[in-house]
Design a protein that fits this description.
mainly alpha; two-stranded antiparallel sheet; Helix Hairpins; single chain; 614 residues
Length: 614
Amino acid sequence: MPVKALIRALRERINVRIYSSKQRVINLLRGLRFLVSFGMIGLLVYVHGFPNSALSFETYQWWISGSFLFFIVSFLIRLFFDFEPGRFLRGNWLEGSLLLVVTADLVSRIIYQKPLIAHFMANLPAEAASQVFFVFSQLVLLLIVLLELGKFSQRLSVLKLNPSLLFVGSFLLLIGVGTGLLMLPAMTQAQVSMPFLDALFTSVSASCVTGLIVVDTATYFSMKGQLVILVLIQLGGLNIISFASFFGTFLRRGMGIRQQRMIKDFMSYDSLNSTRSLLKRVIVFTLLFESLGAAYIFLTWDPSVPFAHAGERLFHSVFHSISAFNNAGFSTFTGGMFEPGVRNSYILHLGIAALVFFGGIGITVLNDLFDPVRMRRRLREPWRRLEPGSRLALYTSLLLLVAGALVFGLVEARNPAQLVEGGFRQQNWFEQTITAVFQSMITRTAGFNTTDIGILATPTLLFFIFLMFIGAGSGGTGGGVKTSTFSVIFLSALSTIRGKRLVEIYRHTISSELLNKAFSIFLFSVSVIFAGLFVLTFTEPDVPFLQLLFEEVSAFATVGLSTGITSDLSEAGRLVLMVSMFLGRVGVLTLAVAVSRKAITNNYKYPDAYLMLG
């Protein structure tokens, strides 16, 4: 009998013997893996969150090594119990590769009394090698936790949860975890715990990619704190569910129809057929644009910006690239983009504006623009054009960009307050053009500023409120009612004025369902802003009305621009802004669907009612 047949026969006998105990062992391992992962995360938080931790470096290493040993044994047991080991290895290739490297490191530490990295870096001191292993082990830990999160996301489809409710819950969870991490002493420069309300406000602002701050990000937080904010921005911009689902689909097996429907709803996509491929492109486009943006920013910093070393320059570049692409508006400089040395880096401003534009325009538009298959098809067949939604988003964004730049340039060129040093009226025509375009682009979504918002003229502030309310594109990382919503309402009004029964765009008809959704979003958004502004007039009676309106719209539209009153608001006023930021990020219509009861049936119709309008 051939050797392969003997192995197959032996394998079948083993499978028959272990069949009865397989499920019990797998369930037990699943529970233990969860407990060990949770314990490792707790240990990681303890070591990094408390600067005077009593846990020694060597003890921490042994805890990490012991945990990895458990994961190695668990992986081997799961491999042994699987009826198709080859398929198991292919489906868990990343976890297996990580654990293989960890196994080699453990063997090296036992036999040679030194970490694996020391064999490749002979000139590296033993202490430095241990530090490298320390960093590497934590990165491996994070990847394993992400893999576990991806596996958990696959089981979310079993729970009969409303996708909207799941979406809202994911942001609440992210905000809660972010608040707890920011309250750790090691996250601040002073090594003291951040007050709860301030930590909550910062976590909400970062998770909802807004950018409003109550403390100076540059001077209040340590690098660890800034790193936590950066992770909150990335997960909040990507949507934590999409991020988890990526690891569950790209690194393992596929996903079911129910899970595809959840991702479809999260990304405002209209088809289930390519939801999985689109989900991968979300990650690919995000990493690509953020990497290119970080490289561009790294090369265009002004020499006068004081960086201690190249590592610090790289961190600032990555931070601003992620913040810009996710339309967050957070900066590691006290004055943001208005910081001396940064405000005059006009080539840098163009790169930041480009990141904001591509991040805010929406993933479906990016996919339509840069998908290689579609690009090749358009080159072969020049008559093919972008999808109607993509064209509408692009044209509306460009129109608003030009309109905002013109209003800013014309109004601020006559603003006496801009005669100060560094003001708009002190710049030449080239600098004024870039400043106007940059501020127009940023105002709708991101919240960076290269001019002092506090000295802007009233007409400029009013037009900026209009731009912030419209916001970014659907499926993008920005907020507001979205450009598509504004366009659909405008086209509907235009059709009504012209006496047309149907609303048409690019030889396509906009359905009544889309029209109803657009008007609902507009109405709910105006209602939330009005309610927030109404409360703010009570909690902040001494603040001018226009500044309160600007702050409220900025919060709801998750823009992050401020006239400088955020840190001076009362606790009640900050709570109002936090609620507005959350509602603006998850979407008032999404929240309404999450908490409302679905209609039992629509198979009836009352007589038409004739009402007097206008």
